[in-house]
């Protein structure tokens, strides 16, 4: 008995949607079809691939198979898109884009609107992840492209969307509020609060450049928690300027010196061919940047 593409597609769907019913809705099939596909694949594998608990999770064998299943599904979608292009059909298909919460909140809504207008047959699905998760999402095949933060390698065809400055985040009644800029050593008179899932590597590098020890008073995961702590006068934070729309009225941003920037780069994967529609997304984004 052989493994089929349908079975791999269903495996990816049930893991990503954490359940049989949600996967069935996403795939546009009934739940019994999803159950039969998983059961058939498990029969070939000779072991369970997913738990039947809620939320559903892959087993150890399921986790091992998942990257290969995602690659097979992504490659098939790319082949279908290439064939459509060869037949001179309008661009179609689904493209999955990963981005961090600050990018998603500020940049992605506008970009999604531009992509929809320019490529009405292409469905763009957004996956949010912390900065340190984006590379893994892209390399593992969870997504077809991503807006990476300061990538060490930029493949041909990638597009730099923005070079973004970091700022200090303080309360509006803080002595630094209203200043044009504040130096890092002066900012550190207050306890430093850091989001461990965000731009910590860049902030640590800035400390090194300034010859200042990196000693955050608190390290939290969620941006909302970080902002709440600043709002409650527990300390100050350093965040990229795109995050300004996330700030409540009680907080403000002040330019930080020496200047610290991060590069936001829209790119496909390094280790496999790009989904054809990713190149189209890049073209649309580049056109808008040039406008």
Describe this structure in words.
The chain has 291 residues and is an alpha/beta fold. Among the domains are: 1-86, Arc Repressor Mutant, subunit A (Orthogonal Bundle), CATH 1.10.10; 162-262, D-Maltodextrin-Binding Protein, domain 2 (3-Layer(aba) Sandwich). It is built from 11 helices and 10 strands. It has helices at 5-17, 20-27, 31-45, 60-86, 101-106, 108-118, 134-139, 184-187, 200-210, 223-231, 276-290, and strands at 93-99, 122-128, 145-149, 159-171, 181-183, 192-195, 218-220, 236-240, 251-257, 261-267. Strands 1, 2, 3, 4, 5, 6, 7, 8, 9 and 10 form a 10-stranded mixed sheet that branches.
Summarize the structure.
The chain contains eleven helices and ten strands.
Order of helices and strands: HHHHEHHEHEEEHEHEHEEEH
CATH class category of the domain at 162-262 = Alpha Beta
List the quaternary state of the chains. Answer: single chain
Instruction: Give me the Rg, rounded.
Output: 22 Å
- What general form does the structure show? globular
- In the CATH hierarchy, what is the architecture of the domain at 162-262 at level 2? 3-Layer(aba) Sandwich
Q: Work out the number of β strands.
A: 10
Output mean pLDDT.
90
- Tally of helical segments: 11
Describe the sheet with the most strands: 10 strands, mixed
What is the CA–CA distance across the termini? 55 Å
Low-confidence parts, pLDDT < 50 over ≥5 residues?
none
Give the class from helix and strand content and strand pairing: alpha/beta
Helix content: 40-55%
- CATH level 3 topology of the domain at 162-262: D-Maltodextrin-Binding Protein, domain 2
Beta-strand level of the residues, as a percent range? 15-25%
């Amino acid at each position: 008995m052989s493994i089929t593409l349908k079975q791999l597609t269903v495996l990816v769907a049930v893991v990503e949607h954490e359940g049989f019913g949600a996967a069935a809705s996403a795939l546009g099939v009934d739940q019994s079809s999803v159950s039969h596909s998983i059961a058939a694949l498990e029969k070939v594998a000779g072991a369970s691939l997913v738990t039947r608990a809620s939320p559903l999770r892959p087993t150890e064998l399921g986790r091992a198979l998942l990257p290969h299943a995602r690659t097979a599904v992504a490659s098939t979608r790319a082949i279908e898109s290439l064939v459509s292009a060869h037949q001179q059909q309008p661009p179609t298909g689904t493209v999955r884009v990963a981005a961090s919460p600050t990018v998603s909140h500020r940049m992605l809504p506008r970009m999604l609107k531009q992509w929809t207008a320019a490529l009405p047959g292409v469905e763009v699905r957004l996956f949010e992840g912390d900065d340190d998760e984006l590379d893994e999402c892209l390399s593992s095949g969870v997504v077809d492209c991503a807006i990476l933060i300061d990538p060490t390698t930029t493949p041909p065809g990638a597009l730099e969307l923005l070079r973004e400055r970091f700022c200090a985040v303080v309360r509006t009644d803080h002595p630094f509020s209203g200043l044009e800029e504040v130096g890092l050593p002066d900012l550190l008179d207050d306890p430093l609060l850091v989001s461990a899932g965000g731009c910590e590597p860049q902030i640590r590098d800035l400390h090194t450049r300034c010859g200042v020890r990196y000693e955050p008073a608190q390290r939290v995961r969620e941006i909302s928690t970080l902002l709440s702590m600043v709002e409650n006068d527990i300390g100050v934070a350093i965040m990229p300027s795109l995050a300004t729309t996330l700030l409540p009225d009680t907080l403000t941003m002040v330019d930080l010196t020496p200047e610290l920037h991060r590069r936001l780069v829209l790119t496909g994967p390094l280790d496999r061919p790009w989904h054809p529609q990713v190149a189209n997304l890049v073209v649309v984004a580049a056109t808008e940047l040039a406008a």
